[in-house]
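Hi support team,

I submitted a single chain yesterday and got back a structure, but I'm not sure I'm reading the token output correctly. Could someone confirm the output below corresponds to the sequence I sent? I've pasted both exactly as they appear in my results page.

Thanks,
R.
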Amino acid sequence: MSEIRVWIVEDDPDWQRGLTSYLNSQPDITVTLTADNATRLREALQASEAGPDVVLMDIMLHGEPAGIGLAEETAASTGARVIMLTSMEEKEFIFRSFQAGAIDYQIKSDFEALPGAIRSAYARRSAISPEAAEQMRQEFQRLKRLEREFEVRKMRDLVTPSELQLLELVDEGYSQSQIAERLFISIRTVKNHINHVLKKLNLPGSKEAARKAREMGLIGDKHEDTNGTM
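Hi R., thanks for writing in. Yes, this is the structure output for that exact sequence:
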């Protein structure tokens, strides 16, 4: 029976000791390193000749979701399979962990499931169920939708209707002088408006600002032509 080398990254010393003892009682699992912070883990990554097969990585380390970045770093450095540990189903953090290279997550209270998850990870099988994978996919879509809605609201709050009108003309290909002529204002006023918009949106140019406004659905298709209606 092959020995599975496991590293545990966990900042709760009591839970770390208890989990180490429990896993070491398994006939095929040996905890070869424990760490409670990024510095200790990185030192081990540099010094260890026999790296881990599986890493149990707590998502929250000392009050921060530092385990997500460390999961990516550890997987890239060692090729180990990373299982995230969490006290609750923190869906956004869990999804970000999968993006970082983790292959599974386990709720800490269900620690008795960890040996099986470790063996599945070692055998290059993801322990996450199809149902859980679909749940994560749906959660990602929900988070992306909320992110877009937030960006739209933020842009609506920042940019005035007259500034959106100007950006729409930029998007349609009008030059600054043509915009000034079309809106019956000076080119200096056009430039001032553009600079103001760019400063508010923190963008380098008017075309980028117009593109962003179009992507947010704030300009573009809502107009037909010069003879049509809104």
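A quick pointer for reading it: The two ends are 73 Å apart (CA to CA). Let us know if anything else looks off.

Best,
Support desk
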